[in-house]
Design brief:
about 400 residues, alpha+beta, CofE-like fold, NADH Oxidase, 3 domains, 4-stranded antiparallel sheet, 3-stranded antiparallel sheet, binds flavin mononucleotide
Length: about 400
Amino acid sequence: MPKSRLHGLPIKSPELIQAILDEANKIIKHEHVLITETKHGFICADAGIDKSNIEGKGTISLLPENPDRDAEIIRKTLKMKTQKKVAVIISDSFGRAFRLGALGTAIGVSGINPIRDYRGKKDLFGYELQTTMVGQVDSLAAAAQLVMGESDEGIPIALIRGYKFDYNEKTTIKPILRKKENDLFRDDTGDKIKNILKSRRSYKLPFANINIDKEIIKECIEIARWAPSAHNGQFWRYIILERDKLRENLIENMNNKLQQDLRKDGKSKDFIKSKVEKTSRSFLQAPILILLCLDTSDLEKYPDLKRNQIEFLLGTQSISSSATYLLLAIEMQKLAACWYCAPLFAKDVVKNSLKLPEKYIPMAFFTVGYPLNTIKTPNRKKLNEIIYEIKK
Ligand SMILES: Cc1cc2nc3c(=O)[nH]c(=O)nc-3n(C[C@H](O)[C@H](O)[C@H](O)COP(=O)(O)O)c2cc1C
């Protein structure tokens, strides 16, 4: 059952939903109602679109484009016609979080500050007020709404007399809108995830000389557990290598293999020396080194080589998805990491040095530590370079 029907609310037409989307900067919540941030920055239901008190079936009313400007025009016109300094508040009725009942809420002002700031003033007992700010235009709008009504009263204007305030011709509604970064209730999970996905970098610089609690690494691997895998095989096996003799031996043995390979390739002594130094530095200085293996025992077995090769590929793809989860989990812990393919080139050396189970195939290293520097973002291909459009 649609949630709106469950809550006894009318189902919105697709046209109305489109109009709400057109008028909204952002959908803040989409449950049985659409809570939106309007283009002005107001948080309200349905982008402030109204269907009641409007003549004509299928006609809706939008919030004014610039309520501050409209309030200013009204204020100036009143001043011209009456020579009186009158402040103008344009309001709408908005629902509220935590409490039932709509309240008149200011959406545009002229001549009056939205906030009455009591900070620095003394209370009854002489204590200085530290944080008190009163949303005076909202209070006035709420009172006015009671006389203007919500249904068929037909009263569009209320005149408020006797309220003392500082007349100010240069005001806008903006100061009453809480800044996003100070808004504890705004759900910005989506933005946070997007930021983590985009800000993660392969960290190849020296790490801070700070040890990492192994439990934090285990928490990251716990996240990596949730990656998708072919027929849910979960072929990934993680080995956490801290700075110790075993790890030093492993890196030394891998370096010997690297030297042999490069010699066979005919590389110069200098080239080999610098390459070996670079890799061993990366691995030796990392506070934590994680080895990722593919456990082949859980791969499906086929009677023919071709399908077994495909299955192996599926296993490799699957552990890569877990590795990506791992990198993101590491990023969420404000740690830095880099994926290295070196174990692939020294599978047997790694296996023998660590006495790994027969069915394990070493696939990757991840250096992990606290970063000392920020990494420049490498270029990314444009979207149209990675989406291949089929010509029809
Ligand atoms: C499968 C794989 C293997 C990689 N192997 C190495 C490696 O051996 N050495 C290295 O410096 N970086 C390695 N990287 C890191 C990439 O070079 C890095 O992801 C790339 O530079 C993009 O940078 P970014 O992660 O900061 O966006 C590897 C990355 C992947 C996904």
